[in-house]
Amino acid sequence: VGLNVEIRPCRLEECPAVLRLWERADAVPSATDDVEVLERIVAGRPDCLLLAVQGKQIVGTVIAGWDGWRGHIYRLVVVPELRRQGLGRRLVSEAEERLRRLGVRRIALTVVGDDERAAPFWDAMAKDGYVRDWSAVRYTKNV
Ligand SMILES: CC(C)(COP(=O)(O)OP(=O)(O)OC[C@H]1O[C@@H](n2cnc3c(N)ncnc32)[C@H](O)[C@@H]1OP(=O)(O)O)[C@@H](O)C(=O)NCCC(=O)NCCS
């Protein structure tokens, strides 16, 4: 990408800015969008939350979770003004690389099926090996 964007782990003090970015980028809100949760994951393993940074601006995020069984990708977000320039793809590949180093052998992720950005993006990632699983149904509970 000719964007001069660096991808690196999130720092503790950047967590509030990450939440603001998600709001601004119109990411689907979730029950876990709060500073304490983000600080906890960053304190646990900083490269679990990766940021794309341009100058001093945070311009993208991805969460690369690992529970010892599967790798999970969450909160892949790119600011609206930098979309369609390959940054989403770069964030995924960086997340993947770091998960692989931890020993992850299978990655799973869920997207809102009728979102006009998420599914087309992940369908385009088929060439990177991401297969749409029509047989899966997700259950969730806020506890
Ligand atoms: C999804 C998202 C992260 C994609 O980021 P991005 O930087 O624009 O993605 P890329 O530029 O790497 O796109 C790679 C390919 O995906 C496909 N793609 C991406 N966005 C698309 C869209 N809105 N419509 C159709 N295809 C799309 C294209 O094939 C694209 O390649 P191309 O631009 O050469 O045609 C971004 O749109 C976003 O932040 N959306 C809001 C949050 C969200 O929905 N996140 C996904 C949930 S995990």
Fraction of helical residues: 25-40%
**Biggest β-sheet, characterized?**
5 strands, mixed
Which structural class do you get from the secondary structure elements? alpha+beta
Rg (C-alpha, Å): 15 Å
Strand content: 15-25%
Low-confidence segments, ≥5 residues, pLDDT <50? none
Write a concise synopsis of the structure shown.
This protein has 143 residues and is α+β, with helices and mostly antiparallel strands.
Please tell me about this protein's structure:
- With 143 residues, the chain is α+β, with helices and mostly antiparallel strands.
- It is 30% helix and 21% strand.
- A 5-stranded mixed beta sheet has the order 1-2-3-4-5, with helices on both faces.
- The protein starts with 5 loop residues before the first strand and ends in a 19-residue tail after the last helix.
- Coenzyme A (COA) is lined by residues 25, 27, 76-78, 83-89, 111, 115, 117-118, 120-121, 124.
Provide the fold topology.
Layout: E1 6-9, H1 15-24, H2 35-44, E2 49-54, E3 57-66, E4 71-78, H3 87-102, E5 107-108, H4 118-124
Parallel strand pairs: 4-5
Antiparallel strand pairs: 1-2, 2-3, 3-4
Bound molecules: coenzyme A (COA).
